Amino acid sequence: MKAQSAGDIPAAIAAYQGAVAIRQDVPEVWANLGLMQHQAGDSSGAMVSFRTANKLQPKLFVPVLFLGLENLQLGNRAEAVRYLSTARQLHPNDPEVYMGLGRAYFGLKQFENASLAYRRATELNKKSGEAWYRRGVTHLEIAEATSGEFAALNRQSPYFQELNAESLNDQGKLVEATETYRKLLAVPDAPPCSRASLGLVLIRRGEVSEAQNELEKDQKSGGCSLAELGLIRLALARGETQLAIQSLGALWELDPGFLRAHASVLTIEMPAEQISNFDQALAQASSADLPAGAVSMLRLSLQGGRTLAVDGYESDGSVVDVTPSQRAQDYYTRREYWRCTKSLLPALTTLSRDKLSLLAACSFYTGEFQTTLAAAKRLRQAYHAEEVGLYWSIRAEQRLAVLYLIYAGEVEPDSIRLHELLAESYRDRGKFSDAEAEYKVALDINPREFAALIGAAANYLQEQRIDPAAEMIQRALAENPSDSEANYVMGEVMIAKHSYPEAEPYLKAALVAKAELVPRVHVLLGQVYAGQGDTARAIEEFKAGLSSDDDGSAHFQLGRLYQKSGEGKLAADAFEKSKALSQRKQTAASGLMEQDKQLPPHP
Questions:
Q1: pLDDT for 543-564, tens place per residue?
Q2: pLDDT tens column, 225-259
Q3: Do the beta carbons of residue 142 and residue 397 sit within 8 Å?
Q4: What is the spatial distance between Cα 110 and Cα 142, in angstroms, rounded to a whole number?
């Protein structure tokens, strides 16, 4: 219709409503009406129109797709999956379908399904920064869930302890990391390269002699190029640049994938001047010592760039002969991880437990993280080798997450939406200064960007910086005074200021928010009424909001209110539930292995 083509949404809606009043049996007209209502923000009207079109013609793609997206927007994720799965059958190559499925599965905490959906979305649209971002965050969530599973299984496992030591190192807790590695190395069956990892921690601590000793031990044992890389780092620190470059050339010849995946080890605690000198030496390096491909990759790494391909191994173009899997252990010992991986991978489904463990190690060290995941999954399914399988799964998921998040920023460096999504990830992991920086970038691009204003306000609130939070949310409400989420955040700001009467109207306006937010609004209203001394109303609001309590705080406040009103048994029950939720939260947090380190730092 002309109105739709001209962008006159109200006129188009009126025209389509007139058309369906004359004939109610044309699904395409109902679908077009639904589209216009969707664009106008009339979700309830759009749902009625799309349902009518779907009932008339179940295989019409647009109603099925938008019924999925509308249900997703309303928080009805299971319904969204049902419709979007049908949409996938009708249009199996539409990236929007897979993005919707990914978000629905993610909201249902079905992270493996979400990962598959986002993987397909990135295959169909390689330039979608949001798809790559969501794929990366999903891998982080899988790593977190798997870490929690491992913590519940056996926190004393050498594999769990190695992950713990690595986490402590990444947090800068070097003394604790050193102690954990030393305890780990005192027992048998430590994971590969644990001693080399200790050496790298000692480099960070400035204990050069001890670091050299540990790295040389792992080097002599064979199989660990990480030890060689640590020794190269020490050579650079001594000014032995030519020797370091020649050693790097030898590593590249053994396995380019290893150097691509682990080049960042070279700059551990390296001063800026030394990095600059190393970069100049690389630029002048002889091709006989270090091939051009290795030089360009290493210089990119020094600049903080991505050195691995996002879709698997990045070949240097050379032809490599690989013998059958019987030679895999020899390849590993010689640190030819790529050859080891290629020799074992064809027999993945028939490999023994030991060979699968070898494949997991080789593929990880050569940067083939998807293969690592496949080997780890097979270890758990075929041999119930939970500890080694969980270990390699977590490490691979972490590395894939970082790789995809970095790539998301590369494909859409000026995307406001991507900066907002990155900020949300930083907020979720308590990295508030990094989140603030991302919101600032988004607001520099567009100072009236509504979602960024709300996010920035929420970020300031989490830091207890009430005044800048108030400024940001006031700017957001100036753009859209009726937005439920903005009213919710303003209600939180007013409560933080103990301005309870002023908070109440904002929170009541927020009660039409997304379904998952409404219980939290009730909890805040409970705080308002408690602050005003209206205990009875406060209790009713807290009870209505208990489903949002994931840390026990709402139950605790409810218990205090029950005490105040003389309901001792109800108070005791609330406190008991509060304690259980608090303990569960702490256990989950301790099992997450501090995943915030896996997000790339704000540039």
A1: 999 998 888 999 999 999 999 9
A2: 999 999 999 999 999 999 999 999 999 999 999 99
A3: yes
A4: 9
Distance from C-alpha of 57 to C-alpha of 67, rounded to nearest angstrom: 13
> H or E segment at 552?
none
Q: Comparing C-alpha atoms, which of 223, 288, 294, 287 is closest to residue 259?
A: 294
DSSP states of 137-194 = HHHHHHHHHHHHHHHHH-TTSHHHHHHHHHHHHHTT-HHHHHHHHHHHHTSS-PPTTH
pLDDT at 40: 86
- Is residue 429 within a helix (H) or strand (E), and if so which, with residue range? none
Of the candidates 320, 270, 277, 314, the residue with the CA atom closest to the CA atom of residue 294: 314
Q: Using the Cα atoms of residue 547, residue 548, residue 552 and residue 554 in order, give the sign of their dihedral.
A: negative
At 41, is the pLDDT very low, low, confident or very high (cuts 50, 70, 90)? confident
pLDDT, residue 582, reads: 84
Q: Which helix (H) or strand (E) holds 550?
A: none
Q: Is the pLDDT of residue 65 over 80?
A: yes
Tokens 């969707």 found at: 38
Is the torsion defined by CA of 455, 456, 462, 466 positive or negative? Answer: negative
Burial group, residue 566, by CB count within 10 angstroms (0-12, 13-18, 19+): exposed
Provide the greatest CA pair distance for the chain.
88
DSSP conformation letters of 484-539 = HHHHHHHHHHHHHTT-HHHHHHHHHHGGGS-TTTHHHHHHHHHHHHHHTT-HHHHH
Tokens of 71: 């249900």
DSSP string, 279-322: HHHHHT--TTTS-HHHHHHHHHHHTT---S-TTS----S-----
Give the separation between CA 30 and CA 19, rounded to whole angstroms: 9
Contacts of 451 (CB under 8 A, 6+ apart): 420
pTM comes to 0.80
| pLDDT 10s digits, 115-162 | 999 999 999 999 999 999 999 999 999 999 999 999 999 999 999 999
Residue with tokens 């993005």: 99
pLDDT value for 451: 94
Buried b / exposed e along 524-542 (16+ C-beta atoms within 10 A): bbbbbbbeeeeeeebbebb
Work out the pLDDT band at 337, boundaries 50, 70, 90.
Answer: very high
